[in-house]
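Researcher: Hi, I'm a grad student and pretty new to this. My advisor asked me to get structures for two proteins we've been looking at. I'm not sure of the right format, so I'll just paste the first sequence and hope you can take it from there.
Model: That works fine. Here's the first sequence with its structure tokens right after it:
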Amino acid sequence: MKKKLIIILIVLFLILLVPIPFHLKDGGTVEYRALTYQISNVHKINTSSKSGYDTGVIIKILGIKVFDSVKESKNMNKESSNIDNSYQGIDFDIDSKQVTLNSGYKMPLNGIGTYSLTGDTCYKAVSSALDSGVRLIDTAYMYGNEEEIGKAIRDSGIPRNEIFVITKIYPSQFDRPKEAIELALKKLDIDYIDMMLLHHPGENDISAYKEMEKYVESGKIRSLGLSNWYVKELEEFLPQINIMPALVQNEIHPYYQENDVIPYIQNLGIVVQGWYPFGGRGHTSELLNNETIVKIANNHNVSAAQVILRWNLQKGVVVIPGSSNPEHIKENTDIYGFELTEDEMKEINALDRNEKHDWY
């Protein structure tokens, strides 16, 4: 064991001495003297050995990080905050209000969900959201509002590349996916779709996803994802496809927190997005009047809704609250001027009931 330990120390010492150039996307270059993983649980190796040393701990102690000088102070501040940014391969940046997907594209951390918004109500809600600075819009074939959303985007005057649109195809379309994709492109009429999801598991979901992969190759769809996929479904699905999903969208709120599912997805390098952040139909009032959440909201002079959305962000979850009320839409975007403490995060985490409010 002693010889093994000496060899490990020598190798690590040599790595630390040799600069490794690393080229950034923006053309800059930094030198890493050691590339290390941020490990939350260091596995102990033979701790009962005569040497008494934990090799895993030694590796963690000797490993160093070298940051891009422009971003160093910001990243250091993140590590000392109550925001968990240590997801496997995910750059979830609350400061810039964006996350970098595994497809290479950036997506806003907050947006608007459009479930149950139709016709002129949907058009006005999306227009209001865009006026309030929202740049992420979630829709679906089953919502019946893709045309209104496309019109609101075209009428906004906002450059197309500044808006991120997610839509979904439904299991009833999985047996003719090309037709479903072309229909979405036609209804939205915004040149391309930023992200397309399968709405939930169903027969022919693999073949439907593979058809979506073809559209990524052509540039008509930029990123792919899944909605209402959990651990078991992902374990079965992922080995059968070619392009890793960039996002999984599931029901997430303080009464249904998915504390086992979220880390599993994030550790795959997939971003998590939550629908029903306020609990969904018939449950919103109860959640927004929860004593614990209201108390925390009063601590920060914000609303209960803003606390819930901020709690999601600090868990690394992108939020898409739905509303047709311009004041609520604007309020739902104002979630970056405060930060929940570690104790406040724990208090909200303690509200979990494993209480799912929809059948997906």
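Researcher: Oh nice, that was easy. Here's the second one.
Model: And its structure:
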Amino acid sequence: MKNSQRVVVSLAAGLAAAVVPQAWAHCSGDAACPSGAELTGAFASLNGAASNSVAVAPAAAALSLPPAASAVGAPGAFDIRFNFTNAPTAAQQAAFDTSAAFWESVLVGYQSGVTLSGAEIDVTLGNIDGAGGTLGFGGPNGFVTPQAGFVFATDGGGNQTGGITLDTSDFGAAPDINVINHEVAHVLGFGTLFELNGLYVEDSGEFTGVNGVAAYQDEFDSLASFVPIELDGGPGTANGHLDENIIVNAAGNIAGVGLTGITDAFGRDLANELLTGVLGPNPGATFLSNTTVATFADLGFVVSLPNAVPEPGTVLMVLGCGTLVGLRRRRA
């Protein structure tokens, strides 16, 4: 991973310049979004409390994918490069370096036939709306690029592309690593490129990628036929995150969130997963699931699952109705 000044991406030769006017920076996969169409904008906002730590699963190990994913191709190069529009402080730089290493440890390459080498992500650090409110936003941009049966957003060359903007008014010395990790996932395609890859139908609440579903069955619900996707929370939250128990008030705003009662073998509730739509009051409880990582195999990556499954009976499984755990502000 490396960092540099912002690179302005120009139109690649032979690619159409049709701008896709989608608020989420992704196309719906219909005729309005052909190969070469330009993706613009950002996925939406992430709101929540600041923290400088992230909980990675205990007994982490590089595991094989579930049997349904056994045909994943050989790893290719994958490198995340952040291009800052304004010079970061040493603490900010360190936080982004940590995030790059975090994702490079689980996304270890691209599947066979994909010729990309990594992601160029523009980063803007500054004021969005002052303290509170929006912490940041991010998503892919560039050109719709099919490769080896997958669809990416690229610069028209060898890199995925996207952008992240974070509100420095909401952080201390460095941004919350959970916020950075969350937004990087959207840049790389989580929630933003599902439809283009035929993995999700808008407002269905059902992610159907074979690798993601197999991991979800292994990790959370053996009888599931899809990965549940959030439908509450409005634009920027709905249709782009793992499902959780969001509580919406009469005005239609997010007022809180409850535990889902859906837990993994470590007893961690799905409400605390990194790619849910609401950041909890205890960011240190945030974890990355095998399910999230496996969805990237459906998006064209070679992945290394982060969570070893403990022996049966060693961890208490928490079941039952979710309980309100406090107010959480919206995240994208």
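Researcher: Is there anything I should tell my advisor about the second?
Model: You could mention this: The helical segments are 90-106, 177-188, 210-219, 290-298.
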